[in-house]
Here is the input.
Amino acid sequence: MEPSGGCLSGPSNHNLNPAGDWGHWEVSDKVRLCRFLCYGSEGDVYTAAEDSHLDMAQAGALLSMLQDGRGIETVNEIRRFAQDGRSVRLDPSIFALALCSQHSEVTTKRAAFKAVKDVCRDPAHLFSFIQYKKELKQDMKCGIWGRALRKAVSDWYNGQDALSLAAVVTRCKQRGGWSHQDILRLSHTKPADEAIALISKYVAKGWKEVQVSYGDKNNTEEVVKVLSYLEVVEKVKHSCDETEVINLIEEHKLEREQLLTDHLKSKLVWRVLLKEMAIQSVLPILGKMTAKKVLEPGGAETQALCARIQTEAALKNEEMHPFSIRLASEHYKRGQGYQGKTKWAADSHILKALDVAFYMSFLNVDPVGKSFVVAVDVSTSLSSVVPGTSISTAVAAAVITMVFARTEIDTHVLAYSEGSLVPCSVSADMTLAQTTDELVKIPGGSTDCTLPITWAIENGKAVDVFIILTNNPMWTFAASPVVTLRKHRQKSGCNSKLVMCGLTSVGHTIADTEDRGLLSICGFDLGAFSVIRNLAQDLL
Here is the structure.
């Protein structure tokens, strides 16, 4: 396979370091900011499934850019990461936006408040933004509820479609100590129209006040729709009739957040909820639904769900990723929850549907358009489990390999061990089992994680990104991976990058990595694909 276009054209001058050589790629404040926006740390380590609390100590590059007068650039980057789905988690972007909104420079502050509606797309995000501003208040020595925040909050509510707003305020009522009632009161929001005014009154005063105010009025068509919807939500809240609750859910597409805890004790209620629930929301609770006999072997609900899981349009609409589906499948196959309390007998029809969906979902992965080497370290047993999941490192490595081999035209797959490296033939028509067998066909030994880079140098392969998959707790190298990578850059003319994925690691990383092209991933989750994608596109 020919190298991708980026390497064929040779290095461009903007990638050269100050010394004029092609070896070292420095980490700038902009890069550190982008890392923070992507996964909440300015460092070169992404830890899967980690969700730590954010504070100013973690945002040094962001503060440095603000001090250098680059506030507008910073806000634009925050908006870009949030809107383009480049962030593993949105919290770092919300925190960064809150910090920018506290900045003393007026144009930065204005830009930050203007971006609130783009970054904070649902109530939980808006609540987080206000909470971060509250936490930053003491450090920044400034107030919260000034005119700019009041306007931003007002614009957020007034910018919503009324019926959609009625749905979100009844689904997500409060989060992190904040509620709609709190922020509507503190922002002194003036509703833009009568329908928004109705919802504001409902939040502030309750349903009875709304009935008094709007019951006998000659209401607009939009107000009538909102009134009818809120009436349904209130009726469900006060209903103990299982049949009535089910009918209301079906007719008005109500969601589980709008129901009472007692309603969710009913198998019949769950069955009707599952019909409309997003696939990505169903997958984590498949075991629970099977254990509670909501989903029974051969049952109509089970058949309907299996059919939906295998529908290409449904998978495409939710942008379901093969790694997410395989994680859910392996957990469901396991037959018990992580705490061991809930147990179930996995339904063979559901497992088959998940398998079909897994292969179908590769169509949802957009190619990056770069050249990749995916190298799997087989020096130790690949039977261990990726932390926080039910998936073995062998299966995880195979799925990761398949994602790149099936979606990127220029991908080389290697299996390596002590002094031995074998190119693997992983084609688009191979099953997961066949891919796994292909990866473990050479014997184990000690490991040298620089072998794949050395192989590329010796074989004249121009590679944009090397992805090393290993569960070896101590990474060993015949030579420094940094030095080896720079040799490849100099020979190939590629600004090559290296991603070290410690599939069972909880923190072991490459030392001396003040090079923008090197990142470590500890564990592995869906977010790791975003990190690799961003790095490949020079966004980190």
Observations:
- Residues 34 and 539 are 7 Å apart (CA to CA).
